[in-house]
Amino acid sequence: MTPVARPDYLAHMKRKTSAVDFEQSLTELEALVERLEHGDAPLEESLKTFERGIALTRDCQSALQTAQQRVELLVKRDGKVQLTEFAASDGADTVDPDLADE
User: Fold this and answer.
1) Is residue 29 within 8 Å of residue 56, measured between CB atoms?
2) What does the DSSP 8-state code read for residue 89?
3) DSSP secondary structure letters along 17-76
4) Digit-coded pLDDT (tens) for 48-84
5) What is the CATH architecture assignment of 7-76?
6) What is residue 69's predicted lDDT score, i.e. its pLDDT?
7) Which end of the chain, N or C, is less surrounded by CB atoms within 10 Å?
8) DSSP-assigned letter for residue 41
9) pLDDT, tens digit, 9 for 90 and up, residues 20-44
10) Is the dihedral angle over the CA atoms 20, 25, 28, 33 positive or is it negative?
């Protein structure tokens, strides 16, 4: 009999994989940009590199949009998104309510 994974475990693993994929995609994208900036690759190789970069960019944008939607769902109160200050331990900036609409 095969073990059945719990839904919460599957959701956790999917989130974990998505975060890793985003980080890997971003790292690869940075390497591709650096390669293109050197400008010493043949045209065909540069075009393939550019195409891969576009695909990675779309993947990263999609992952960021998904993350943003999840955050908005987590901070919704009474049907409205309420921005709250976020004090990160790594010294990141906090959310400035005056800039929320920008």
Assistant:
1) yes
2) T
3) HHHHHHHHHHHHHHHHHHHHHH--S-HHHHHHHHHHHHHHHHHHHHHHHHHHHHHHHHHE
4) 999 999 999 999 999 999 988 888 888 776 667 666 6
5) Orthogonal Bundle (1.10)
6) 86
7) N
8) S
9) 689 999 999 999 999 999 999 999 9
10) negative
